[in-house]
Amino acid sequence: MLRILLPFLALCTGIASAEATNIGSRRELFVDKLLIDQMQGATLRLHHPEEAGIAVKFDQPWEGRFSAYITVIHNDEANKFQMYYRGNAGFKDGTSGEVTCYAESADGKTWVKPKLGLHEINGSKDNNVMLANLAPYTHNFAPFIDRRPGVPKEQRYKALAGLGGKSGGLSAFVSADGLHWQKMQEAAVLTKGAFDSQNVSFWSEAEQCYVAYFRVFTAGVIDEKTWKPKGVRWVSRATSKDFIHWTDAVQMTCDQPLVDHIYISQTNPYFNAPHLYISTAARYMPGKAVLDDQAKKELADDTKAYPALIKDCSEAVLMTSRAGTTAYNRSFMEGFVRPGQDFRDWTSRSNYPACGVLQTGPAEMSLFVERHYGQTTALLQRLTLRLDGFASLHADYAGGEMTTKPFIFTGKALHLNLSTGAAGSVAVEIQDAEGKPLPGFTLDDCMAISYDSIDRVIDWKTGSDVSALTGKPVRLRWVLKDADVFSFRFE
After folding, report:
1. Do residues 153 and 180 touch, judged by C-beta distance below 8 A?
2. Rounded CA separation 161/198 (Å)
3. Among 69, 72, 225, 230, which residue has the fewest nearby CB atoms (within 10 Å)?
4. What whole-number distance in Å separates Cα of residue 368 and Cα of residue 345?
């Protein structure tokens, strides 16, 4: 009988291994349901960033109320943070009135606008203008640091910029220092899209290629003579091996109906889990006017300069994608960064996020959001979250649990980023692929954690060593009470 069963058991093990996701030692966040099989009493909870003060005021004549399309990056070699953004006091897209401005910071919190001395503005070079007289590229210049191994020093920084229509599309730029730029070639490298917003690109460590995300409309080609879009604003993606030759654009799919206008996606690899792409996207609500008469009265001067100011509203939402896929996950349809109690943020195109989520402390990461867009008080606000803290596996005081799908890992211990109440706890049981608790790693064996920690190793009665399970399909059964788990990793 055993001889008959052995081939069958081997076949079942092979099937389980083939279906198991191999996560290796990478960090997994609870922002999607890729690894989730069942939940009872537990949920995925979206967390909201906390306001942390003003990062930059757009108060210089060459910046103005229409400063926008901000990119924030961390130069780890120079140990500094860098910020790039459009300066636009006149709101004439793609004209010489637009400039690209620069700011920097030692800690990502306090920012300065250095006098670069590169361009004369209003009779002086004492300004932070990095690019000028380079329309239409100064409309939406969006740099990144190229971390591809072996990249030439003179191409350490790269950027895409440009508009559609007569301008030809997006052109590729390179720089050695992030301040002095040149085109890689005269012709545009991407030509099919609605490029009049921020178009992001990066080197993907996980995909080993360059990736670009840019805006399109869901229902086909735009009539560029009358500019009548079809469908809602959405996102397409393309890839490249050399930043010049790109694949045909592929429109992203989504696990939710495409009913929102996603104005800018701000899709980038998450620094703590680069296989996971985080999009702090802008949800634009055209025609949704919410301001009362008193607010309109206080905005009277700004409304004269920009009549559309009171006709729309917007906010930031959270979307995610996995490296190598053309699908967005929207586990959370609610607002990620809401307009808030300041009526000046319930206006057209306010609350658009900058591109870039950066670590600014041992347990802190920062993101940046435009406030008061189109107004004389326009500014960029810093917001903070705990590390990995976009969302969590959550259970309230009544408790709950979640069981994962089978996966394969490598590592010696299970590390958690978690937070519990004093009466709360988190326990983990390791099961085989069929859901049977493994001896020594059962729920009764687990030493439940009651604590708040960015990196806490979980123990069972025999200790924390799980290396004997490396390479074998397993499931995790999470049992929580008044607790949040933000991420986990085997290492």
Report:
1. no
2. 8
3. 225
4. 14
